[in-house]
Amino acid sequence: MAPTLNGEVDIVIPTIRSLNFLENWRPFFEPYHLIIIQDGDPTKEIKVPEGFDYELYNRNDINRILGPKANCISFKDGACRCFGFLVSKKKFIYTIDDDCFVAKDPSGKEIDALAKHLENLTKPSTPYFFNTLYDPYREGADFVRGYPFSLRAGVPTAVSHGLWLNIPDYDAPTQLVKPLDRNTRYVDAVMTIPKGTLYPMCAMNLAFNRELIGAAMYFGIMGDGQPLGRYDDMWAGWCTKVVCDHLGYGVKTGLPYLWHSKASNPFVNLKKEYNGLFWQEEMIPFFQSVILPKKCTNAQECYLELAKQAKEKLGPVDPYFNNLADAMVTWIEAWEEFNAPANVKNGSA
After folding, report:
1. Distance CA 194, CA 212 (A)
2. Contacts with 187 (C-beta within 8 Å, 6 or more apart), sequence order
3. Please, what's the b/e burial string for 173-186 (b: 16 or more CB within 10 A of its CB; e: otherwise)?
4. Angle at CA 188, nearest 5°, toward 184 and 191?
5. What's the number of domains the chain is made of?
6. Residue 48: which domain range?
7. How much is the pTM?
8. Average per-residue pLDDT for the chain
9. Nearest CA to 120 among 250, 13, 26, 243?
10. What is the pLDDT of residue 6?
11. 211 within domain boundaries
């Protein structure tokens, strides 16, 4: 069946290689528009299989389009994908890595991950009271006895966080001690992450409502020239969860699954993550204690306040966080330029 939201969705893919993996996704992705962010050497030719509607940006394009603000987009890091979020004009974004393939459910049926994400995003979330049957809006489920009727309408869903079969999303130390671990468990469940609870967001199977939360879905400055890597999606996940909690939006996790085929090198990863393994013990308490003022009524205002508080509270941990906070402000400046009311085609600014 043809997708019903293909005019409202962009698929954002960061890559350093030709995108032959799209052949595996052709039945599910071909009706949609792709935004491809080429990381690394901009002179390298990136080949995209025929039949896909796409636009391709490399580092030269990012520098040309953003000018002095281009320094807020990471180089040689998956965080470059957020440039695709910036230039998109669609309501929904799905982002996926180029080493991820179509998974199958226990019956052997191929999983249309994007369709499931859109189902999650277009149904409410329940962050204020946990339903023990998980997502009550799924077919065959409902609210259980004792669930307050006043909360059953739910709230808008801003983020849909999908999972992965085969190669788990481990940090470097866990990769080193469990090199043969494979995730073979398919859990047929979707749940809303409760208000006040953080989670480790992975960007290789992620969708979100750009109109609700896009301005806060910034992956920071990481990778080349920075003392931190592989925390880009973690940072964006913690920021967006705090903003969603403040604005009254929901975050879902669980289905859909995809097949993650390639484990990255744990020794390379350890070099990138080394500082983060220490700093996360400061970052997570910071986000757990953040209080956003009532005057912050949209994602942009919330994110600027987060940048201010991050500089105050995390700046003393390391000067990197001062630079990160400055980049967060630059990101919002770029976001507001690209999303001024006259330029918006889908939804509100």
Report:
1. 18
2. 163, 254
3. eebeeeeeeeeeee
4. 115
5. 1
6. 9-338
7. 0.95
8. 95
9. 250
10. 78
11. yes
